[in-house]
Write a structure and sequence with these properties.
This protein is an alpha+beta fold. It is built from two helices and two strands. The longest helix has 18 residues. The protein is globular and about 35 Å long. The chain starts with a helix and ends in an 8-residue tail after the last helix.
Length: 78
């Protein structure tokens, strides 16, 4: 497994651990409470736009529909 995939896997494991402890993990875009099956790792600055693949702060939780809808576009402004 590549180093990048290991980092994302580690991030997902951390988020799932938070869920098991009862800490809600929310989609950063729509606020949906995520579960282990709907959790995706969203890159704030897409890799295709030069974003750090795995830097802290560049991976945030997002639901699959929001992650897919955004694609490679820039982060929506609040």
């Amino acid at each position: 497994m590549s180093k990048d995939r290991d980092k994302v896997k580690s991030w997902r494991k951390y988020q799932k651990k938070r869920m098991r402890r009862g800490t809600p993990v929310l989609c950063v875009y729509c606020g949906t409470v995520l579960d282990p099956l709907t959790l995706t790792a969203e890159h704030v600055v897409p890799k295709s736009l030069g974003g750090n693949k795995l830097g802290r702060g560049n991976l945030v939780p997002a639901c699959q529909p929001c992650n897919s809808k955004r694609g490679n576009g820039p982060q929506p402004s609040g």
